[in-house]
Amino acid sequence: MTTAPTAGARRGPAVAYLGLHRGIVELKAFFRERDAVVFTFALPAVLLALLGALISGVYEGSSVTSAQYLVPSMVAAGVASTTFVNLGISVAADRADGTLKRLRGAPTPAAAYFLGKVIMMLVVTVAEVVVLFGIGVLMFDVTMPTDPSRWLTFAWVFVLGVTGCTFLGIAASSLASSERSAGAVMNLPYIALSFISGIFYTPISALPEPLLTVGSLFPLKWMAQGFRSALLPDTILTQEVVMSWEHARTAVVLGAWCIGGLLLCRTTFRWRGRRDG
Where in the cell is it found (predicted)? Predict the structure, then answer.
């Protein structure tokens, strides 16, 4: 005697399939908009090139230069810019032009829509990271690690960071009352967090203690630290807040933001704009 699959068992594969399909649609739509593609990749790349060219010096006790220290931090900033800022603006635009309303009528489960965005962001952000790596290698003589364990560290920090920032970008998009206001709503917290997370201020240990405390509550600081642990030698630990890369704490904080971001999405996400009721 066979038993029929439960509704939950059927729903899981269906959401995964719809999410994958939605991710492919999102990727096609993104790469069709050439101006969006150019500006998405250009902002972190230009910031890295300019800031890296303006700072100089070698940290005491290490062969790492100030520009090389900046590279993994800017990779984290690029991840946040692509996922949190650009995605939040994109979702706000989808809501304003009626795209979300039409998807809701399909109907598309909210989980499938979120999954599609995560897939799109993973692909786009990988391309962003490749661009930033290229600038680091060509302009600042950054040496890519050869130890597989360092690439494994980079991979799990990257996946957790992209996932958490994607969910937060979707959730924060609901704060924008219109597509026009979305840019200001998303960029203000991004810029503020970049400063208090030590992205533009090197080394991070030079930040005032109150800013370090606040920055440690958010994922950007931990993404940057995780990427530095993967891309820079351990001799640079003298410039960190503590003499440890704190991988376990990094995983816990980023994982918590993934869960918290998903819960925020589920509770704050709106298919319709405020003007639609």
Answer: Cell membrane; Membrane
Q: Which band of pLDDT confidence, cut at 50, 70 and 90, is reported for residue 56?
A: confident
Tell me the average pLDDT across 31-40: 82
Residue 4's pLDDT band (cuts 50, 70, 90)? very low
What are the DSSP calls for 193-257, one per residue?
HHHHTTSSSSSGGGS-HHHHHHHTTSHHHHHHHHHHHHHS-GGGGGGSSSSS--HHHHHHHHHHH
Place of tokens 């891309």: 231
In the prediction, which pLDDT does 34 show?
Answer: 81
Q: Are 271 and 98 in contact (CB under 8 A)?
A: no
Please report the beta strands in the chain, taking only residues with DSSP state E, as ranges in sequence order.
none
What is the torsional sign of CA 83, 85, 91, 93? negative
Domain ranges for the chain: 13-271
Measured between alpha carbons, how far is 219 from 228 in angstroms, rounded to an integer? 14
Nearest to 185 by CA among 273, 113, 269, 86: 86
For tokens 């999954």, the residue is 115
| Distance separating alpha carbons of residues 84 and 190, to the nearest angstrom | 8
Q: How far apart are CA 132 and CA 219, in angstroms?
A: 20
**Residue 12 CB partners (closer than 8 Å, separation 6+):** none
Q: Where is pLDDT greater, at 3 or 148? A: 148
Nearest to 165 by CA among 193, 198, 201, 146: 193
Is this structure's pTM higher than 0.85? yes
**Are 147 and 223 within 8 A, CB to CB?**
no
**Measured distance CA(15)–CA(116) in Å, rounded:** 10
Orientation of helix 148-172 relative to helix 219-231, angle to 10°: 160
Lowest mean pLDDT among 4-8, 51-55, 71-75, 103-107: 4-8
